[in-house]
Structures are given as structure tokens and as C-alpha cells.
Write a structure and sequence with these properties.
There is one protein chain. By secondary structure, the chain is mainly beta. The protein contains 1 helix and 8 strands. The strands form 2 sheets. The chain has a 4-stranded antiparallel β-sheet with strand order 1-2-3-6, covered by helices on one side. About 30% of the residues are buried.
């Protein structure tokens, strides 16, 4: 019998792993943004990002998104990693709503980022209105 892992248990595991990696110097710090008022939320918010180097010029991201309005007809359907000037380095599409799991964390692996780039911006997209909401700007580990 395989045990069922709840969303909160997975989130706690990801947070503990991130703290261990950060303490060992293998990952950047966990960066959190302020969340917006749920009643007025038009876009999903990125509320936390964990980034790890995964090879020469490549990075893995764990991105936590909050979209309190998530329903099958309208939901957070993607997030992306960009330069501070808007060049897109990677995007993860989300194929369904996460109404029963808020906020939720998903990963994006193997994002190639040019050598001179030290920080990136992570933002989420709404299936109806596009990109917007709270973003997180995060420093890349090893690029100080």
C-alpha cells in the first residue's frame, strides 16, 4: 500500500529541502512576495521562489503561486522566468486549475540563463487576463 502525500506535507518537504540546500550553499535563499487581497485578485501571484543551479548556465525553479479564484473556467495556467528587462528564459504551462491546493508549488527544470544575468523575475499568468499580479525577483546562486 502506497501512502498518500497531502499538498501540505509536500509543501513542508519542499520548504525543508530548500532550507537544507540553502544552508549547504547549494541553492539561493527562499524569496517570498506579499500576497494581494483575494477579493480583488485579477491575476495569480507568485508568493515564493526557490532556485538551484543545475549545470553550466542552467537553473531549476520551485515556484509557489496563489490564485484564490482558481476554477475549471479560469485559473493560473502558467508561470515564467524572465530577465529584469522581460526576455523570457523559460515557461511552465499548467493544464488545470488548482482550486483544492492553494497556494501550490510547481517546478521548472533546466532553464538556460545567459552568463551575465544575476537576477531573474518570476511571474504567473491567468488563463483569462494573461500575465500580471505579484512577481518575485530572485538572485541566481553562484552569480554574485
Amino acid at each position: 500500500m502506497t501512502p498518500t502525500v497531502t499538498a501540505s506535507a509536500r509543501r513542508r518537504c519542499l520548504q525543508a529541502s530548500a532550507l537544507v540546500l540553502a544552508a549547504l550553499g547549494l541553492a539561493g535563499p527562499i524569496v517570498k512576495a506579499q500576497t494581494s487581497d483575494a477579493a480583488a485578485q485579477r491575476y495569480p501571484d507568485v508568493v515564493a521562489v526557490q532556485v538551484r543551479a543545475s549545470g553550466s548556465g542552467r537553473f531549476d525553479f520551485d515556484v509557489t503561486v496563489s490564485s484564490s479564484y482558481d476554477t475549471p473556467s479560469r485559473y493560473a495556467d502558467a508561470f515564467r522566468v524572465t530577465s529584469t528587462r522581460g526576455a523570457v528564459y523559460g515557461e511552465r504551462r499548467l493544464l488545470h486549475d488548482h482550486a483544492g491546493e492553494q497556494p501550490f508549488t510547481r517546478d521548472l527544470h533546466g532553464v538556460t540563463i545567459p552568463a551575465g544575468t544575476r537576477t531573474v523575475v518570476v511571474q504567473a499568468r491567468d488563463s483569462r487576463f494573461g500575465y500580471g499580479g505579484k512577481v518575485v525577483q530572485v538572485a541566481l546562486p553562484g552569480r554574485h
